[in-house]
């Protein structure tokens, strides 16, 4: 038997292939909490896909020392003047970090520390972002095409979506005169 | 003051840019232990660069929960019939995993568990490899161009180079009739 194997997964021609790839999508109906302008939201089709995530979990969840990998694809669009974005979360184990590597499109990585200080980093193809521990993170698509990025995070990090769902970030990213601006709520 | 910042680092046009990027190279003189054919090795220029590594350490070493990022560039070449390769290591904290993503070139990821079972995975642009915990790993360039890949690993993983330096892997990757083959030593 040959001891030379094929790789676990491949990402070629913008397509993630391999065994055990987990695929989810998030639609407007799943994201009612996160957008500020509820009136604009109610006028839109709740089935509109805002983002999709493909993930590769080579070890069990909650195992210490392992890593997970995923690609997020955020569709272009706005709800009112707020860009399509991800739910955002802290890690359940707060000190766990994460790397994002932008593949295509343009956007913003919105970050908030535990004192609710919020800032953002520009995302564009080739930009690499380290998300420190104890920092909530969310991404928004500020362009006219899909924004996609790969992510690498510890297998025991977990997700705390509830804090953001209840309290939001202290700033929101809106389009003003065609440009993204981070403003206090 | 704008709260919209530039990304920490960028990897654009095959160039890693940003503050605090650590750069090292490993030459034949640094790698005397790892190649099998010492006679062939002695005939070569000890200053020959075998590989280079660019790393980004956004948190302190040995901090739990953080991640590190690096790109390794292995030059094409052989020592006798053994391909140019990295030192190889276990993680000091044995259960820490790692991801490799091949950027360019072709090669092999050589893996060995703690029972000294050795196998390999083919590396080519777009191949993604998860290195489980408790698994020694080394990469070899089997092509005629630079082999480069990005790596993501936990900031507290550490490196145990000594075990490999002393005991090697149980198999070596050699060129036979122009093709890579993994053979017992």
UniProtKB/TrEMBL annotation, chains A, B:
Q: What class of enzyme is it?
A: isomerase
In the record, what terms sit under GO molecular function? glucose-6-phosphate isomerase activity
What EC number(s) does its UniProt record assign? 5.3.1.9
Question: Reaction catalysed by this chain?
Answer: alpha-D-glucose 6-phosphate = beta-D-fructose 6-phosphate
Keyword Isomerase in the entry? The reply is yes
Q: Which UniProt keywords apply?
A: Gluconeogenesis, Glycolysis, Isomerase
Q: Which Gene3D superfamilies match?
A: Jelly Rolls
Q: Name one Pfam family in it.
A: GPI
Q: Which GO terms describe its biological process?
A: gluconeogenesis; glycolytic process
What are its GO cellular component terms?
cytoplasm
Residues forming the Glucose-6-phosphate isomerase prokaryote domain are 26-169
The protein in question is named glucose-6-phosphate isomerase
**Species this protein is from:** Parafilimonas terrae
């Amino acid at each position: 038997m040959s001891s030379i194997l094929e790789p676990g997964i491949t990402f070629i021609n913008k397509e993630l292939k391999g065994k055990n790839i987990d695929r989810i999508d998030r639609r407007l109906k799943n994201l009612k909490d996160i957008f500020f302008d509820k009136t604009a939201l109610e006028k839109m089709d709740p089935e509109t896909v805002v983002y999709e995530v493909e993930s590769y979990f080579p070890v069990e969840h909650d195992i210490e020392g392992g890593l997970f990998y995923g690609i997020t694809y955020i569709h272009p669009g706005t709800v009112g003047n707020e860009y399509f974005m991800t739910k955002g979360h802290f890690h359940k184990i707060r000190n766990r970090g994460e790397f994002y590597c932008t593949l295509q499109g343009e956007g913003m990585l919105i970050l908030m520390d535990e004192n609710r200080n919020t800032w953002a980093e520009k995302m564009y193809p080739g930009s690499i972002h380290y998300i420190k521990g104890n920092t909530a993170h969310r991404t928004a698509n500020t362009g006219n095409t899909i924004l996609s990025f790969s992510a690498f995070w510890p297998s025991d990090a977990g997700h705390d979506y509830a804090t953001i769902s209840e309290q939001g970030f202290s700033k929101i990213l809106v389009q003003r005169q065609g440009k993204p601006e981070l403003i206090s709520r």
